């Protein structure tokens, strides 16, 4: 009877059963790495090691040089603290570089988005010869910035190029040789405003990169179902309202991607400026990339050049890191 009472108690209250020692519990079998996973590791390991050394390793090395006293041909790795950074932010040329970068980035990104979106909407109207127009606008992307810089240097030369045609109307712009600053005011050691000469560089950069945003936006437009547009028309929406309320909001992720990619290009621009204008008179077309090159490889101020490179890296990271974190959260 007592044994039956104990069995009944264990059935009604399972937690009252005596617990088995931990050693007697079943051990979960360890997952073994399969052959395919070892193959994947073998293929990825060389790339991982190379990126670790030649990207992040060199970034760390550049950061160390930037806080050293190596500003001669003879290496000097003694610690200098933030001396090189303080020098740069008090330097007239570097202040001009930051000003030029700000205005170049704003104009470049804005025009690339507006022109790319506008052209993609026009091409999306099922025009005849659509493939021809698409190839015409995508062709500049096949060129390097060096080629683009040389071509536009000829076209915008104040004594030749477009000015020979504009002279018929009495217009003679100086293009990239103009040293005027629009709406300028004193900021540090420089006059902060829009350098007129940077507009010529913006024209060349927009000409080359508009095809990229055109392709992005056109792919986005072709991915929007026609049923959404028809439903909006049935609700009485005009074409303008359809684009404003339906299409443009759906293209917002593409716009963000274009902004990030174009900002990355504009903040580290070098080859276009170097081939087209150089630093320019009074540094009106100078950018940190050109300054870094001349400081490091012509002036042999390696610590100052490394500091410029680290500042450029941080400027790019301001745009790239939040974008990557947002994408990671959305994927999660």
Automatic annotation (TrEMBL):
Its main location: membrane. It comes from Sediminibacillus halophilus. This is Glucose/mannose transport system permease protein. It is a multi-pass membrane protein. The lineage of its organism: Bacteria, Bacillati, Bacillota, Bacilli, Bacillales. Residues 1-30 are annotated as: Disordered. One of its GO terms (cellular component) is plasma membrane. InterPro entries: ABC_transporter_permease (IPR051393), MetI-like (IPR000515), MetI-like_sf (IPR035906). Belongs to the binding-protein-dependent transport system permease family. Residues 98-325 form the ABC transmembrane type-1 domain. PANTHER family: ABC TRANSPORTER PERMEASE PROTEIN (PTHR30193:SF42). Residues 1-15 have a biased composition (Basic and acidic residues). The chain crosses the membrane at residues 38-59, 102-123, 135-155, 192-219, 246-267, 301-326. Keywords: Cell membrane, Membrane, Transmembrane, Transmembrane helix, Transport.
């Amino acid at each position: 009877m007592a044994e039956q009472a104990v069995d009944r108690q264990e059935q009604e209250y399972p937690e009252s059963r005596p617990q088995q020692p931990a050693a007697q519990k079943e051990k979960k079998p360890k997952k073994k790495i399969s052959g395919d996973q070892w193959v994947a590791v073998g293929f990825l390991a060389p790339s991982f090691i190379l990126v670790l050394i030649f990207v992040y390793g060199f970034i760390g090395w550049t950061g160390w040089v930037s806080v050293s006293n190596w500003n001669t041909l003879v290496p000097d790795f003694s610690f200098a603290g933030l001396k090189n950074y303080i020098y740069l932010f008090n330097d007239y040329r570097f202040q001009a570089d930051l000003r030029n970068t700000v205005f170049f980035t704003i104009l470049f990104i804005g025009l690339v988005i507006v022109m790319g979106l506008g052209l993609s909407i026009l091409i999306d109207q099922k025009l005849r010869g659509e493939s021809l127009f698409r190839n015409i606008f995508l062709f500049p992307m096949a060129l390097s910035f060096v080629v683009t810089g040389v071509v536009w240097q000829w076209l915008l030369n104040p004594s030749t190029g477009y000015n020979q045609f504009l002279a018929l109307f009495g217009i003679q712009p100086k293009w990239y040789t103009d040293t005027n600053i629009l709406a300028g005011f004193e900021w540090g050691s420089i006059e902060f405003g829009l350098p007129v000469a940077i507009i010529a560089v913006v024209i060349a950069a927009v000409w080359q990169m508009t095809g990229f945003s055109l392709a992005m936006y056109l792919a986005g437009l072709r991915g929007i179902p026609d049923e959404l547009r028809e439903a909006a028309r049935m609700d009485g929406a005009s074409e303008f309202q359809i684009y404003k309320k339906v299409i443009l909001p759906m293209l917002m992720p593409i716009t963000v991607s274009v902004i990030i990619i174009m900002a990355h290009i504009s903040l580290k621009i070098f080859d276009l400026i170097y081939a087209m204008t150089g630093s320019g008179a009074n540094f009106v077309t100078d950018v940190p990339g050109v300054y870094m090159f001349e400081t490091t490889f012509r002036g042999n101020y390696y610590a100052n050049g490394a500091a410029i490179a680290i500042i450029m890296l941080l400027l790019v990271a301001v745009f790239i890191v939040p974008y990557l974190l947002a994408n990671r959260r959305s994927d999660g």
